[in-house]
Write a structure and sequence with these properties.
single chain, Nucleotidyltransferase, domain 5, about 45% helix, extended, FAR1_DNA_bnd_dom, Protein FAR1-RELATED SEQUENCE, MULE_transposase_dom
Length: about 400
């Protein structure tokens, strides 16, 4: 298949790379390019190898508009890549979704030089498949976008009790047909949902902070802290009351930290600090909600917890096998003994057992390692016997368990 020349570059970006966050690109492209009068020939000239483009946003917008006019969808061509043959060879009789991938190499690549000028370095415009017909092109994913004005107009009509479909019909009449609207009714529903969700989060976050401030004014020992991102949006928060502080003072030598559960409404991770009192009952030392499970979030939380308890570190802390969590514990609680929770280990292990799941002798050795080894030497001997007998030394998950501090398994 013929293709244009490629030019070496300093800082390359493949327009539409799926690893990029493209929301900002799409917004800027819609505002600056969507309503331009460029023809296909004009766009091809602007995207020739060596041509200067204003920035990556304009390049993305031009390529989106070009793709719609020609009849394909981006990021890269939607026919890019090859069919996954591994699944088709599976012995399991399952439905496989049809694929349209046929290794199409059409793409646009730009680069920013050291002088901050963006140039086109690759523009492959030849496809090895048929293009979508004109009556289908407005349905292509990369061709469907709401401009800020369209989203505001629909939102205003919905607030005035006009149903979304009725509002869409009005836009369709104004545009002279559904193919000229630029998005589908489903896109309108999705945009309104995202806007409402963002508004709800912001309003509820403000109410949460107000609640914490009221609590701290009425309860002198109530402690709370929040973390926000660069846009001042709430990311993580932690709180504990006087009862938590007293319980930690008496029973905080051993702490269990669990991030198993996630809330549905806000997609936040519930992260309680739990202990055991003298009646063998669970007690709460504090509660956090996290937006992610990164090392930086855990470090912020553990430092916040430490500050709320007057700098007193736990002697032992039980967690799951999250590497980011392990790293943060080593940084913030260097004197604490870190142990892995048996419940989490067993839950994760089942998916790695494979055919050994039903092997009684293997399960005996595994259960002995988890619950019945009295010394470190006995654990090491039993673990190595299990690894050797069942040829597990090459299995990544078991290797990872082996690389962990052995003390972590002695629960």
């Amino acid at each position: 298949m013929p293709c244009d020349n490629e030019v070496p570059c300093d800082d390359e970006v493949e327009v539409g790379d799926e690893d990029e966050v493209v929301d900002e690109l799409e917004r800027a492209a819609v505002n600056e390019v969507e309503h331009s009068n460029f023809t296909v020939e004009d766009t091809e000239k602007r995207l020739e190898v060596g041509e200067i483009v204003e920035n990556e946003y304009i390049a993305y917008g031009l390529y989106c508009k070009y793709a719609r006019e020609i009849g394909f969808s981006i990021f890269v061509c939607s026919y890019e890549g090859k069919k996954d043959t591994k699944r088709s060879k599976s012995k399991i009789n399952v439905y496989q979704k049809p694929t349209i991938r046929c290794n199409c190499e059409a793409k646009l690549r730009i680069a920013r030089r050291k002088d901050d000028v963006w140039r086109v370095t690759t523009f492959k415009k030849d496809h090895n498949h048929d293009m979508f017909a004109p009556y289908q092109r407005h349905l292509l994913r990369s061709a469907r976008k709401l401009s800020d004005e369209q989203e505001l107009l629909i939102s205003t009509m919905v607030q005035s009790k006009i149903p979304v479909m009725r509002a869409y019909d009005m836009l369709e009449n104004m545009a002279g047909g559904r193919e000229n609207v630029g998005f589908t009714p489903r896109d309108a529903y999705d945009a309104l949902y995202r806007a409402q969700k963002t508004k709800m989060k912001n309003e509820d976050a403000s109410e949460l902070v107000k609640h914490f401030m009221d609590k701290s004014n009425n309860e002198p020992f109530f402690y709370w802290n929040i973390e926000v991102d660069d846009d001042n949006r709430l990311m993580n928060f932690f709180f504990r009351d006087y009862r938590c502080m007293v319980d930690y003072e008496h029973f905080g030598d051993v702490v269990s930290f669990d991030t198993t559960y996630k809330t549905n409404k806000y997609e936040l991770i519930c992260a309680p600090f739990i202990g055991i009192d003298n009646h063998n009952q669970n007690v709460m030392f504090g509660l956090a909600f996290l937006s992610d499970e990164t090392e930086s979030s855990f470090e912020w939380l553990f430092r916040t917890f430490l500050e709320s308890m007057g700098g007193k570190q736990p002697e032992t802390i039980f967690t799951d096998q999250c590497q980011a969590m392990m790293n943060a514990i080593g940084t913030v609680f260097p004197k604490a003994y870190h142990r892995l929770c048996q419940w989490h280990i067993n839950r994760n292990a089942v998916s790695h057992f494979g055919s050994l799941k039903e092997n009684k002798k293997f399960k005996y050795l595994w259960n002995k390692c988890m619950s019945y080894c009295q010394t470190e030497e006995e654990f090491e001997e039993t673990w190595q016997k299990m690894m050797d007998n069942y040829n597990l030394n090459g299995q990544k998950w078991f290797q990872r368990c082996t690389s962990c501090d052995i003390d972590g398994f002695l629960l």
